[in-house]
Design a protein that fits this description.
The protein is of the alpha/beta class. It is built from eleven helices and 14 strands. A hairpin with a 4-residue loop joins strand 2 (about 25-30) and strand 3. Helix 3 runs parallel beside helix 4 (about 145-155), helix 3 packs parallel to helix 11 and helix 10 (about 275-290) packs parallel to helix 11. The two termini are about 35 Å apart.
Length: about 325
C-alpha cells in the first residue's frame, strides 16, 4: 500500500509514519515529489495495517497498490523519474543518447569513437568490457582493461560510461569505472545480480529479456527499486518472434504502454532490436516519435572489422545522420535531443 502525506506534512510526521510501517513488519520506501511525499509500505499483507496508518498525523490517505510491481507502478509516483549522471539525462523531455561500440577493442578504437559520438551529440558512451556471447569461442571482451579504457575515454570527453555487469561478484569492480550499470537481456531475471546492482547505488539500465512479458520486465525492475535505488531505466531491445527478417522484433508499442504504467524512463535499443545497421536509423526515429526518453546505439569506425556485432553497428557518418534526423523528430514531439 502507499501512504499519501498531506502537502505540508512535516519531516517529523513522515519519520513517524516510516517508523510505524517498520513496526508493522513492512518495509518503507519514501518517495519525495514536488507537491507531496508518498511512503510505500511493502511486504506481506498485514491485517489492520491500513487503519493503523491512516490515523497518523499528516496522513492524507492510504491506498492499496493494485499492480504486482509496487515501486515501479505509476500508482506510487505520478511524476516521471528523470535519471541524470554527468552530461547524460534520460527523461523530463530530454532524450539522452548513449552510443559506442558493442565491445571495447583497443585504446585507439574507444577514444576515436568517444570523441566522434560526443561531437555528434551523444552524452553517454556505451562499450562492453565483459561480453556475454552465445558461443564460448567468440570474443569475450577485455574485462578490467576494457573498463580502464572506458574510464580514460570519459576523462577525455566527459561522457557518462554505460557498461554491462554480468555477475554479482563483478558489481564492485565495474562500479569503480562505470557511471551506469547495464543489466543485459540474458540477465534480466538474474535476481541476485539485480539486487547487487541496486545496492551499488549507481543508475541502472535494465534491458528486457527477449521472451519477457511486461509484468516480468517491471517485476525485474522491482528487485532493483526495492533496494532503495530509484535510478532505474527500462530498455526495450526487442523480443523473439517467428520473424527472421530482423535479429529480433522491436515492439515500439512498449514505449507508450510503459509510459502509462510506470514512472521509470524508457530507453530503446534499435541496434539489437533490428540487428541490421540499415534499419537502425528508421527505428531510432520511430522510437523518438513514440516518446522514448533515450536511445542506446552501436557505433563503430569500421563495422566490418568489429570483433562483435559489426553487422548492426552504424558508421560514424551514419550516426551523425541519425542524430540529425532524430533531432527533427524530437522537436516535432516537443522533446530535446
Amino acid at each position: 500500500m502507499i501512504v499519501v502525506m498531506k502537502p505540508h506534512a512535516t519531516q517529523q510526521q513522515i519519520d513517524h509514519v516510516v517508523e510505524r510501517i517498520e513496526q508493522l513488519g513492512l518495509k518503507s520506501q519514501v518517495i519525495v515529489g514536488t507537491e507531496r511525499t508518498v511512503i510505500a509500505a511493502l511486504g506481506e499483507k498485514r491485517d489492520g495495517a491500513k487503519q493503523a496508518l491512516e490515523t497518523g498525523e499528516g496522513v492524507e490517505k492510504v491506498m492499496p497498490i493494485l499492480a504486482p510491481y509496487k515501486m515501479a507502478s505509476y500508482e506510487v509516483k505520478k511524476e516521471r523519474t528523470v535519471v541524470t549522471v554527468r552530461q547524460l539525462t534520460i527523461g523530463g523531455g530530454r532524450i539522452g543518447v548513449i552510443a559506442g561500440p558493442c565491445s571495447v577493442e583497443s585504446k585507439e578504437q574507444i577514444l576515436e569513437i568517444a570523441h566522434m559520438v560526443k561531437e555528434a551529440g551523444a552524452t553517454g558512451l556505451r562499450g562492453g568490457a565483459f561480453k556475454p556471447r552465445t558461443s564460448p569461442y567468440s570474443f569475450q571482451g577485455l574485462k578490467e582493461k576494457g573498463l580502464e579504457l572506458l574510464a580514460l575515454a570519459r576523462e577525455q570527453t566527459g561522457l557518462a560510461v554505460v557498461t554491462e555487469v554480468m555477475a554479482p561478484e563483478h558489481v564492485a569492480m565495474v562500479g569503480r569505472y562505470a557511471d551506469v550499470l547495464q543489466v543485459g537481456a540474458r540477465n534480466m531475471q538474474n535476481y541476485p545480480l539485480l539486487e547487487a546492482v541496486g545496492e551499488a547505488g549507481l543508475p541502472v539500465l535494465l534491458k528486457r529479456g527477449p521472451s519477457a512479458t511486461m509484468d516480468e520486465f517491471l517485476l525485474a525492475a522491482e528487485y532493483i527499486l526495492k533496494t532503495g535505488n530509484q535510478q532505474v531505466m527500462l530498455c526495450e531491445r526487442g523480443i523473439r518472434t517467428f520473424e527472421d527478417h530482423t535479429r529480433f522484433t522491436l515492439p515500439l508499442a512498449t514505449v507508450p504502454f510503459l509510459q502509462q504504467t510506470t514512472h521509470l524512463p524508457i530507453v530503446v535499443d534499435p541496434s539489437h532490436g533490428t540487428g541490421k545497421a540499415s534499419l537502425v536509423t528508421a527505428m531510432a526515429r520511430a522510437a523518438v516519435a513514440a516518446g522514448a526518453d533515450g536511445l542506446i546505439l552501436e557505433v563503430h569506425p569500421q563495422p566490418e572489422k568489429a570483433l562483435s556485432d559489426g553487422y548492426q553497428a552504424l558508421t560514424l557518418d551514419g550516426f551523425r545522420q541519425l542524430m540529425a534526423e532524430c533531432r527533427k523528430v524530437a522537436k516535432a514531439v516537443g522533446a530535446t535531443l
